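Feature request, filed as a ticket because there's no other form

It would be nice if the structure record came with a short human-readable summary line next to the tokens. Right now we just get the raw output. Example of a typical job, pasted below so the devs can see what we mean:
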Amino acid sequence: MTTTSWQGRTAVITGAASGFGLETSLLAARLGLNVVMADVMMEALGEAVAQVQALGAQVLSLRCDVRHAADIEAMGAATLARFGAPHLVFNNAGVGAGGLIWEHTARDWDWVMGVNVMGVAHGVRVFTPMMLAAEKADPGYSGHIVNTASMAGLVNMPNMGVYNVSKHAVVSLSETLYQDLRLVSDRVHAHVLCPYFVPTGIAHSERARPQDAQEEGRKATTSQRVAQGLIEKAVAGGRVTAADVAQFVFDALEADRFYIYSHPKALAPVMTRADDILAGTNPTDPYRERPELGEQLRAALRR
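Raw output as currently delivered:
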């Protein structure tokens, strides 16, 4: 459990209107932090802000499409003006998309990579220099940057194309950030969150898809419909909650633990992938332990 005194410090959270972002905002408020909450879904964000303010937190809320550098730059300037340099930055906004990898359109790639990868990259680019400057100016300052990836950033399940690619990029970005910070700082730290199936709004990402990323009249392919159904079922059945994950994250900050997992017992496929890479063997069938699931997926896609 968290024991550090966070009172009066500031947390910046993207994707704050739901899921991990909302639960992290609520926990931050309970711990006495000021909270900067950003999202593209303004109605949901307004409701989330009301919950956080009801806990007594000072809140700055902004509409922010993390794909766009200017939006995050504006969020950084507003944060600095209101609260000063943040102590915690959660580059959390993310969207999901499934289907065979060649069936994603150019707009799918632009949208998913824009939110999941460039959203993190822009957050790192804008807030890291701010935090390093605060470290130099204040001997008591410490900061943490938490990037939300996924277990999909450590393994490659089939029919999850663009999502896998984006989350692997976030893991790579975060590991590099960790090493780069160690070259120049003792008190600004990096972390990567790799959740497994947790009940959040990720299965319904299309609701947050901006107009400029939509394709009028487009119909989902068979593989995309199958993926959507599997994601909805898996996420709905998750027993670890978004609130649990928020607490796991704050516990990891206290321990300065880089990798943060929601389901550490689900890491066996990561080891299998590493073994395949080291041995130079072809990728192992992800359904070898439950072949009936692989057969069901193949049958659905070969109709």
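Something like this underneath would help us a lot:
The longest strand covers residues 188-194.
Residues 199 and 236 are 5 Å apart (CA to CA).
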